Amino acid sequence: MNAWPFVAAAYAVTLIASAVIAGWSYVAMRRAERAVERLPRR
Amino acid sequence: MHALANPTRFLKLARPLTTLFAVLGTLLIAYGCYAGLVLSPPDYRQGDSARILYVHVPAAWLALGGWSGIALASVAQLVWRHPLAGVSARAIALPGAMFAAICLATGSIWGRPTWGTWWEWDGRMTSMLVLLFLYIGYIALAANGSERGSVSRATAIFGLLGAINLPIIKYSVTWFQTLHQGPSITLRGSSIAPELLWPLAYTVAGFTLLFAAIVLMRMRAILATAKVEARLARLVAA
């Protein structure tokens, strides 16, 4: 059995899922920190 | 650890570390994957399918390490009432769940060419699936009853009790008759040939740094959201 399609699928799953969670976390962080910057000064 | 109890002090340290961990982690992952796919030789028994090791093992390590982090943070919250403990546990839960899912998916993909099956209800795979469900339960619990970005006492107790599953996962291949291979890397050494093993150090280090960057980003998001909510609550009350 040619193992390369399985290897490619495993790497694709890992790298795409890691990129998605990292990107999602970055966007959530930037959005939340921008909301703090927009808060009225006391 | 108590020196970081002040969120302002924590954020001062977290901001540069987030970028450093993310950049260094990405570079190590890139080189580790290149080494695993191109530079390392195929395994003499499993052939090229053994290359899945370089993404499967870091995912398993981070899924287990993530819950260990949740359990330690739960202790810090319950015993010392550390103000950032609940925040860090909440921040770990989602990437921990993601890496548990990646571990199960890559394990399943590895199982098809190696064992001839996508899934088997053996000790290791079943206990790993239980860990994924524990993460999902923790995320659901943490979404409710959080205060100033932290988690409730019940959620912290759940985080602590869930750690019972960690030694079950670790020793499942020793305790049960299982399709999954026994431990290849122990404190006494490794049964994997050095020429196959070295790229694993890069991917483990790389994914660990990326995981740390993700946790820091999520902690910063939780703290910022809590700050906005607290300020808005004060404005409404005034």
Description:
The complex is a heterodimer of chains A (42) and B (238). Helix content of chain A is 81%, strand content 0%. By secondary structure, chain A is mainly alpha-helical. The N and C termini of chain A lie far apart (67 Å). In chain A, 26% of the residues are buried. Chain B is mostly helical and 238 residues long. Chain B contains 7 helices and 2 strands; from the N terminus they run ααααααββα. Chain B has helices at residues 7-39, 53-80, 85-115, 123-143, 153-161, 165-175, 194-237; strands at 185-186, 189-190. The two termini of chain B are 35 Å apart. At the A-B interface, α1 of A face α1, α2, α3 and α7 of B.
What order do the helices and strands come in, and which of them pair?
The complex is a heterodimer of chains A (42) and B (238).
Chain A: H1 4-37
Chain B: H1 7-39, H2 53-80, H3 85-115, H4 123-143, H5 153-161, H6 165-175, E1 185-186, E2 189-190, H7 194-237
Helix pairs in contact in B: 1-7, 2-3, 2-5, 2-7, 3-4, 3-7, 4-6
Notable traits:
heterodimer, A: 42 residues, mainly alpha, B: 238 residues, two-stranded antiparallel ribbon, 7 helices, 2 strands, 74% helix
Overall form of chain B: globular
Structural class designation of chain B: mainly alpha
Number of strands of chain B: 2
The helicity of chain A comes to over 70%
Percent range for helical residues of chain B? over 70%
Largest interface, counted by CB within 8 Å of the partner chain's CB: A-B, 26 and 39 residues
- Model regions low in confidence, pLDDT < 50 over at least 5 residues of chain B: none
For the largest sheet of chain B, list the strands in their spatial order: 1-2
